[in-house]
Please model this.
Amino acid sequence: MENNIDSRVAANENEVIDLRQLLIKYLSKWHWFVISIVFCFIVAFLYLKITHNKYQVQTTILLRNQNSTPELSNMTMFSNMGLLGVSKEVEDEIQVLSSKTLVRQVIDSLNLGTEYYVKNGLRYDEVYPISPVQIFVSNNFNDTLKQKIILILSPTSKGYDISFQYGESIEKKYRVSDLSTPLSTPIGSIRFFVNGPLKSGQKIKIISYPLAALTNQLAASISVATVNKNSNAISISTVSPTPHKAKVMLDKLVELYNLDAIFDKNMILTNTADFIESRLRLISSELLDVELNVENYKKTHGLTDISSEAQLYLETASEYEKKLADIETQLNLVNYVESYINESKNQFNLIPANLGIKDPALQKLIEEYNVALLERMKILRSSNEQNPVITQMEQQINAIRSNIVKSIAGVKDGLVISKKDLMAYNNEFASRIKSVPTQERQFMEIKRQQQIKESLYVFLLQKREENALNLASTIPSARTIDAAYTTGSPVSPKRMIIFLLALILGLGLPILVMYVMEFFNNTVQDRKEFQKFVKAPFLGTIGLSKETENIVVKEGRTTPIVEMFRLVRSNLQFMFSDIKSPVILVTSTISGEGKTFIAANLAMSFALMKKKVILVGVDIRNPMLAEYFNLKKNNKGLTIFLADPNCRMDEIIQPSEVHPYLDVILAGPVPPNPAELLMSQRLDELIRELKFRYDYIILDSAPIGIVSDTFQLNRLVDNTICVARLKYTPKEALHFINHTYESKKLKNMATVLNGTNDVSHYGYGYKNEKKYKYRYRETTQNALEKRLNKLKKNK
Model:
């Protein structure tokens, strides 16, 4: 249990340390962040300068309930006649308001096909409704455009420079002295109308859009939605950089919507009025003829009253006659509708509905027929009869007309049967009144015809008055609650959000760049990564030195890098504390990792302990020791000793010239057979002799990842130091180090990491219940010397 807790604590501490190291790594590039943030803020500022502020413009309307208006509350004309169909649902009206047909009418009404802009700083601002310059090409010009046209007009001291662009393919430049002359272009002659003086240097941009593309664009920008689910109120909104233009456009949209609805209603009512008038003229003529017959019959036969005896029979028969009259009326109405629908000229005309026909199925078919005809008329306003939608609707209309004809036939059959039944009952009573004088019976037949015509005439008069009243009281379908208005501050761009994004991007870009650089960098990047991956013991780090000297470890010097070498020396001593005159091999995986630098300065660090040290250059392929100690290259060196049996050891040993306790054996001339020389027994004899004379023997060997020379020296050494260099050694080399360590190809192998960034302040620390950190700086030496001098004076 305690072990688990300790492991979690250790893991948390490592995470904190990793986060701190990551923060330190990023903050070391603080100037990257400053440059990035300043750059992103400049870009954000320029973006705000060239981007138009966009405002939300909104209007609210309320859809009227047609059956609830005071004028129609007592008559319900529309619902009774069925000519207007059922009340429109809110969702249907939303589709009408957002339709491209209505938007196209707005564009035509306000002449929105061409936009005018004036340059203001880094951007062009639209001017509406009055522009300094306007253009005219021809009527319906925008209908013929396939791509948009861009004109840029620049007044100069000598006239006007005009840039013309049509789509992406045609670009032309013009220079004219006067705008009164039409400009000849590839798409036609363009005339300019100047509304005021133009300043020199002022730039005006004119854009003409194809109407189809502009209609799609504006229709997509208009949002139509209900205010809430239980309301008939509709909110219409759009976002535009020109709020005044957007207000005018939304107000015009509502206006045209109402006009379109009123037009549809009036067209139905007018068509119904014409039909009623034609029927009234016909019935009036027939009624006049019947009344003249009644008058003439009474005069001819001298009829004044009906006998009381026949009156009882006649009253009973009268009831049946009324029913017969009603059926006759229904048959006449059905015949009227049948003759109307069968006439070819009325193929696509509205059928007068609910003139008194009592059959509900036939009445419903007539309503569906009228609704389909109205929809066809709406589409034909912006299309032609070749449109597939028109063809489909005509098929639907023909199908409904066929159903109406069939329904009329069925209604007529039913009425004929009813008529036959009533006539049978009527004939029964007719036999009872045979005693009635023939003149009276004939008079009643004429009177019955009069009653039928009168009832039909009165009915048509009533319908005419109702239709006229509704035609006079037609009101808009929508009432404006709020005229178009701007909601306030711009909806885009949001300045605070833009600058916040600029700040985030300014902080994120350097991190991203550093991450990408690190991702694609295949070298060791930090000490923790090295220690985590390499399995061999770790002796310490050696920082980057700003000094130009190769030998940085010197007598009396206490710089941070000197302390680093001392720490490596101390850790190394623990590894061979029981070995006398140890032989230390210093190597690396590849060239350039600083093995010679480490070997030379480590040898100097041992020499500072008053120990006799000799540094042997066994890298006989690429010898570098002579340059490090500023020694002259001569013919006497290790290769000469190994190749010449007559050469004595003392002839190749040279003083280092940097410390009396440090001697050097240079590699000598590069031989043709380096591998064979290093296998020579004379090298074994040399090392044995050096162990008698020196306390430490340090071998500067060749890189183990390039040649195999170093592995041949393993028989002679006690310890091996493999040097890696931060941000230089490839990560693949770490696998080679682990493999060499695990296979024990080199004795007592340990590692040193060269080129770290710990030179500015060097320290070490440990964690337990308390934290302790020690920092060593060059100024510490001066402080110690002053204190020692003070103590000597006091003595």
